[in-house]
Write a structure and sequence with these properties.
The structure holds two protein chains of two kinds. By secondary structure, chain A is mainly α. Chain A has helices at 55-63, 70-77, 81-93, 103-106, 111-122; strands spanning 39-42, 68-69, 97-100. Chain B has one domain (18-48, 77-198): 3-Layer(aba) Sandwich (Rossmann fold), CATH 3.40.50. Chain B starts with 19 loop residues before the first strand and ends in a 7-residue tail after the last helix. Classes of the chains: A mainly alpha, B alpha/beta.
Chain lengths: 124, 205
């Protein structure tokens, strides 16, 4: 976490904790898989046991209070994607976040959306 | 994280709207300008993936002296372009070498298409990426990054050198220029639109 007191090593020193230590060594997440640009959002479920969540889990929850994507979260918390996926799957299992694959992902992108993208790009 | 949907008053009907995320892949050899292009046209952000080493990558990555190393870190170029509050384009720039294909397999699912960024001085570096997209029938275009002083090839010579289909767009670009990078993306979407109209809908002969 940027700005935290224990961050006295610079980036060159590399991570103090190997990223997968945060996941107890797990490299594959549980449950249904989700895309890099799947939408993540917190549910209304209350956290029953705060102590069970690592600070990284809490950071991810914080970021997902507004709809965001898996890739955005990984970039914001500065953790590898694989680790973020496991954290998200944990949170999903606890019922704290919902992960939804974007509609356009399910099928081939329709022409209407393609035209919207085209117009959007032209208007940049 | 501003998607304009987190209205705490809850009055915005957009909060019920679908957030559409569209992926575009950017592939190409090392140093071809992927990071530059993503940065020119979008809000570029760091994204890394720490992947367990597969047997395939164990053969290529020397792990002598670090026998405990079971993961490898790969940095991706990750850019976001908000086209509208509910429509966001995500660019993923990934290394072109074959050993990174495990990442592409996931990135490619549901992607709009891909741009293969090529350098005319090292055309062979783009072979693996072209091969990958052709085999998986992922629509793509080739963008030639015209580096300062680089000899400007005729695009038809490049087409022959890369053995590309006549209808596959090859565009010239300057990866540093926002307008040029934008034009590359526009060329890709136009190509995808055109290809889409040629194919009959499933179920209709």
């Amino acid at each position: 976490m940027p700005g935290s007191d224990e961050r006295w090593l610079d980036a060159e020193a590399g991570p103090v904790v190997r990223p997968y230590a945060l996941t107890q060594g797990r490299t594959r997440h549980t449950g249904e898989s989700f895309d890099l640009v799947a939408t993540v959002m917190t549910t209304r479920a209350a956290i029953t046991d705060l102590g069970s969540l690592a600070p990284e889990h809490m950071s991810v929850l914080q970021l997902a209070r507004a709809p965001t994507t898996v890739a955005d979260i990984a970039s914001d918390v500065d953790l590898p994607l694989g680790v973020v996926r496991i954290i998200l799957a944990d949170l999903r299992e606890l019922g704290l976040v919902a992960i939804r694959t974007p509609v356009v992902m399910a099928e081939r992108i329709d022409k209407h959306t393609l035209r919207e993208v085209l117009n959007g790009l032209r208007g940049l | 994280m501003d998607y304009g949907v987190s209205d705490p008053a809850g009055g915005s009907p957009r909060s019920q709207g679908q957030h559409r995320a569209i992926k575009i892949l950017l592939a190409g050899g090392f140093g071809v300008g992927k990071t530059t292009l993503v940065g020119a046209v979008s809000e570029i952000r760091p994204l890394r993936t720490e992947e367990p080493l597969t047997e395939g990558s164990l053969r290529t990555d020397s792990t002598a002296g670090v026998e405990g190393k079971t993961t490898t870190t790969v940095a991706m170029d990750f850019g976001r372009i908000s086209l509208r509050s509910d429509l966001v384009l995500y660019l993923f720039g990934t290394p072109g070498q074959q050993r990174f294909w495990f990442m592409w397999d996931e990135l490619a699912i549901g992607a709009l298409g891909a741009v293969v960024l090529a350098d005319t001085r090292r055309l062979a570096d783009s072979f693996p990426a072209i091969d990958y997209f052709e085999r998986r029938e992922i629509p793509f275009i080739v963008a030639l990054n015209c580096f300062d002083g680089a000899h400007r090839y005729d695009t038809e010579d490049v087409r022959m050198a890369l053995d590309l289909e006549p209808e596959l767009p090859i565009v010239l670009c300057d990866a540093r220029s926002r307008e040029s990078a934008k034009d590359v993306l526009i060329a890709l979407v136009e190509h995808v639109l055109m290809t889409a109209s040629e194919e009959p809908l499933s179920g209709i002969i």
